[in-house]
Amino acid sequence: MKIHHPVQLLLVGLMLASAWGLPFLTHAPNRLLTGTGIELAALLRGERLWLLVPVLPLLMAPFLTPLRKTGLAVAIAASLWLAGLTWLAGDEAARLAGGPDSLVRTSFGGGFWLLFILAGLQANDALRRLNGPGGRQTLAQLAVYGPVLWLLLSGRLEALSVLKEYANHRDSFDLALWRHLQLVGLTLLPACLLGSALGLLTFRQSRARGPVFTVLNIIQTIPSIALFGLLIGPLAALGKLFPASGLAGIGLPPALLALTLYGLLPMARGTLAGLQQMPEGVIEAARGMGLSPRQRLLRVELPIALPVMISGLRVTAVQAVGLAQLAALIGAGGFGAIMFQGLLGSALDLVLLGVIPVVVLAIAVDALFALLVSLLEVTPR
User: What kind of fold does domain 170-378 have according to CATH?
Assistant: First the structure.
């Protein structure tokens, strides 16, 4: 058989190795003890064997001809396989749960996570070959996880340990979600304004390009924890000099400042790249129409460069979602607070409760900006 998709072949090989080489679930007497691994093969008995039906198209994916319908079939099979894996984990956890006062915990194993990730990669690779508009592909990629979301919202996964942790820490989770969104939202506005201004400056003044991007690159190379620590002293001193300013060495101010500094480089590069791609004929036509430099910037240059600028903001937003996790180290809160609480208590599922929402939030933010960019690229300006 001819191999049409080498990437799919690699993913299939890793999927088979994960299914037989790693535990699918772990079962422990309580949240602190190490669990006993449960293999996927031990769970696929009786009626559960129907869950293997979507696996057949995935195993054949490397050998299928590169047609639109075959790519769609692989994506649908991957979606069903993702839902089947998740349902199987929740069903087995419910079977092992015991009574209402039981302390037993059933958690996702390494095999589950690898199988889930690999199936998602197979779906994304198949959907990229559909050659549709970018916005439609993004929606299709999100739709792959729709059945999993339905299982989560329907309560069929409540017996899993990570969902038990959510039930026990719901108030803390809600506060962490709000603070994480606050950190990201308050970072994007100054990063967008300052980064765009720096990008415009380097476009107008080519001599400033080297020094500006040298400084921004140096900031980007500083480890985030180190930058948080470096800002504590100066902001604490400013807070003492200006008590009414609300500045402090820990908490929200240093976190927002650090996240903004990290967001300047992708925003400045995106602005510069967008302005540099401007066709010279468009600029000459704008000059011939008698537009002033300011009018050319606002009416011609920025609208044409906007999709690339939004792509830079997309990188800034996704980066802020991830880096905000570490802001909990200086008292800024967010999902990092839950993650570090789990690390201190050796509670892996509590760690996951702080990590999984950040991953989902990053994917959602990336998809939102991808849709926005695709809309701007097809909308006449």
Answer: MetI-like fold (1.10.3720)
